[in-house]
Amino acid sequence: LAEAADWGAGGQGDLGKGVTGRVDFYEETESRKSHVVVDGAKHPDALLAKTGLVTFDEAELDLLAFLFTLVKILYNCGNTAALPDLIKRIEPLRLAAGPVHTTTIRNENAYFSCISHHSMPPAWRTVKGRPLVPKLVTGMKHWHLREGCEFYPKKAFHRVVEGIPGGADVIFIFGEIDCREGLVLAVEKDRYRDLEEGMRACIEIWMEEAGKVCKEKGFRAFIHPVVPVLNETRSIVVKYNRLFKEAVEGRGRELGMVWMDIFDSLVEVRPGDISGLGLKKGLALDGTHLHPRYLEAVEEWGRGGGRF
């Protein structure tokens, strides 16, 4: 790995198939696609991903995973100035290793590739001149906030909330995991009669617990719709958001909550989809998370009386 690291750090290396030279990176302005550039010539990512410059053993993959995770930590903490040089050193190693997403470090690869959380793509950008500071809670469902739950995401939620200044404006982005796996499994286990009963129960859990937090901390809470990225669960997300919006608009004033009415700006009519809707062109990032450019819809909502 040291040999490969020297290659990546120095910007020099044998990419296989006769490709050698200086490694750089650039992003197309119009398509916003990133490419690896070798000796000034753009090469398809697929070519580089299949190169297999180095075969990493498990210990070396673990070290690569550590570097991936370091990028996530630095990004989440706002130390973005350190990232460009670090990424430039790591990315050649990731490409040289081949399909890292099929290895034991696939989760860490996701940390590096997309930071792997719904709050991360919009992080450190601005809306109406205001910076979006991430406060990450990993893996939390609305259902985890129920009374008596001791699962770690609930404890992480309260620990993170404690660190947010009182009176702050806070955007809450939760509920996607409920729609992706929690609700379906709960109905299969006969915890709820049907999906709608489960949805209403999860939303009520959120309203009660998050409502207490908002009142205690004096937050003005902006409730983000569940993101509609996954084709397989979009029909569930559409219905969940309808019920979620009704709950927030019905009780939001007393709890200090505002529904971010941006969902229609994220989707478009697509007759072939099971829900009749598809993710709007240009908003896909990695198949799971929204592209940061969706913040344009947030800006527009704010200008239109969204109170942001």
Task: Write a structural description.
The protein folds into 2 domains: 2-114, no CATH class; 126-306, 3-Layer(aba) Sandwich (Rossmann fold). 45% of the residues lie in helices and 13% in strands. The chain is built from 10 helices and 11 strands. The chain has helices spanning 2-10, 45-49, 58-77, 83-96, 106-114, 152-162, 176-188, 195-217, 234-255, 295-306; strands at residues 12-14, 20-27, 34-38, 41-43, 126-127, 130-131, 169-172, 220-223, 257-259, 267-269, 277-279. The strands form 4 sheets. A 4-stranded antiparallel beta sheet has the order 1-2-3-4. It starts with a helix and ends with a helix. The model is unreliable at 1-28, 31-36 and 43-52 (pLDDT under 50).
